[in-house]
Amino acid sequence: MPDVESRIREIIAREAGVPRDTVQRHSTLADLDISSVQFVQIMFLIEEEFDIYLAEGEIGVDLVSVGELLDAVERLLADKSRSAGA
Amino acid sequence: MSERLPLRPPVTLGDLADALNGKLIGNGEIQVSALVHPTEVSRADHLVFVMEPALVSALEGSPVLGAVVAEDICLPQGLLEGVVRVQRPRYALADLLEIFASPVDPPPGVHPSAIVDASAMIYPAVSIGPFVHVGPDASVGSGSILMSHVSVGASARIGENCLLHSGVRIGERVCIGNRVIIHHNASVGADGFSFVTPEQASFEAAKTGGDFVTTNNRGIRRINSIGTVVIGDDVEIGACSTIDRANLGATVIGRGTKIDNQVQIAHNCHIGEDCLISGCVGISGSCRLGDRVVLAGGVGLADHIEVGDDAVVGAGSGVWRNVPPKQVVLGYPAAPKSEALERELNIGRLRRLIRDVADLRRRLLRLDHR
After folding, report:
1. Is B267 a catalytic residue?
2. Whole-prediction pTM value?
3. Which helix (H) or strand (E) holds B93?
4. Domain edges within chain B
5. B342: which chain A residues are within 8 Å (Cβ-Cβ)?
6. What three-state secondary structure class fits B96?
7. Can you name the CATH fold of B109-335?
8. Which CATH architecture has domain B11-99?
9. Chain A interface residues facing chain B, Cβ-Cβ under 8 Å?
10. Cβ–Cβ of A44/B348 closer than 8 Å?
């Protein structure tokens, strides 16, 4: 199964309509020409993909880069994994 | 728009670079005579405009020599002999299309089939096309063009250098500013949709009542529209748009406002200056828009709504409450952007949330049975 980063990059590339290799950690929403309405759809698809809820304040439409989104998802997945193990 | 415009084709790339405030790279002496889409180049004197990277590949192997290209688009070395680089492509496009447009240029004078009332005032250099009707005491300012089948009602005023396309209807006493463009079959100055009943009407009761109304609408009576419409200078009104006259006073469209096709602006509305109102917007009676307001496609405003200066309303929004200045609102009902996006996300989450709650419920029941 592809790792978290490649699955997220795939979702972003598909929704933004850009080649996958243009979605880099340092890419911003503006770089990828993603509107805030599109970003909400991306958040929704990521939540579905990983069965998580991106909490208010954790992530928002003012997100700066793809890297920050990846970090937030990885944090949530680590929390989920710890909870499941507890 | 550059003060050096209007140029007329054929023009050199050097002249274009000056006119567009662009940066010339390569041969500025190349002459171009027509602006075409990158996929439609057939001659060396064609000019192309490239504002998307995907269009670059269309130029490979074509006879084109010169192009106007957005600053951030990469071009293969040697693809073109001359390029004008521009920072704001869509703004440059406005200049380019003015240079290369084929303007409406009918002959001056009154077509023999037109009917112009003897009391109407027609100023110099006006062109009045076939089957136009200009009513009593109306006036048409100098340099204005009325294409075929336009009608101008009694005592209406058309300013200078206006362009009214075929089929435009201007109602009696309507006042149109200078340099106004009105597209095919638009109607300015029809009566407002204004009616009243002797007792409280169902739609009035519905505002404060519950799921059912106890009143009815017997004896609907017309409220006449004896006011007018005032359109400011430099306004543009799209095809089949309709702007109704006021009951009293005037429905007002402020200077510089641009209205797309199939927009309905009801009686008594006041629209500010430099607003952008996109296709299929519906503005109910007595709404007030500030200056520079943007309404995207399909927005609907309930009656008596106020939208502040510089506010932006997203496509398809339904506005039931006033919008403060500079606020961006979206959705149905329209809400501030962050709230609307959160609402959208939460609606998308419902399916999973219901599943999760069902799962939790099952687990709790299992715990209860232990």
Report:
1. yes
2. 0.88
3. helix B89-99
4. 11-99, 109-335, 343-368
5. 56
6. helix
7. UDP N-Acetylglucosamine Acyltransferase; domain 1 (2.160.10)
8. 3-Layer(aba) Sandwich (3.40)
9. 36-37, 40-41, 43-44, 47-48, 51, 53, 56, 60-61
10. yes
Chain B residues close to A48, C-beta within 8 Å: 352
pLDDT tens by residue, chain B, 370 residues: 444 456 788 999 999 999 999 999 999 999 999 999 999 999 999 999 999 888 999 999 899 999 999 998 999 988 999 999 999 999 999 999 999 988 888 999 999 999 999 999 999 999 999 999 999 999 999 999 999 999 999 999 999 999 999 999 999 999 999 999 999 999 999 999 999 999 999 988 888 888 999 888 999 999 999 999 999 999 999 999 999 999 999 999 999 999 999 999 999 999 999 999 999 999 999 999 999 999 999 999 999 999 999 999 999 999 999 999 999 999 999 999 989 998 998 998 999 999 999 999 999 999 888 7
User: A44 and B337: CB-CB below 8 Å?
Assistant: no
In angstroms, the CA B3 to CA A82 distance is 67
Q: Which of B132, B142, B237, B243 is nearest to B184 (CA)?
A: B237
Beta-carbon separation of B352 and A36 below 8 A: no
Which residues on chain B are in Cβ contact (under 8 Å) with A40?
A: 341, 344-345, 348
The two counts, helices (H) then strands (E), for chain B are 4, 40
Q: Going by C-beta distance under 8 Å and a sequence separation of 6 or more, which residues neighbour residue B351?
A: none
Please report residues of A whose CB lies closer than 8 A to that of B345: 40, 43-44
Domain with residue A78: its CATH number is 1.10.1200.10
Number of A–B residue contacts, CB under 8 Å:
24
End-to-end distance of chain A based on CA atoms, in angstroms?
Answer: 25
CB contact under 8 A, A47 and B330: no
Measure in Å the smallest separation between the Cα of B348 and chain A Cα atoms: 7
Q: Which residues neighbour B314 within 8 Å (Cβ) at sequence distance 6 or greater?
A: A37, B296, B299, B328, B329, B330, B331, B334, B337, B340
**Which of B267, B270, B304, B369 is flagged as catalytic?**
B267
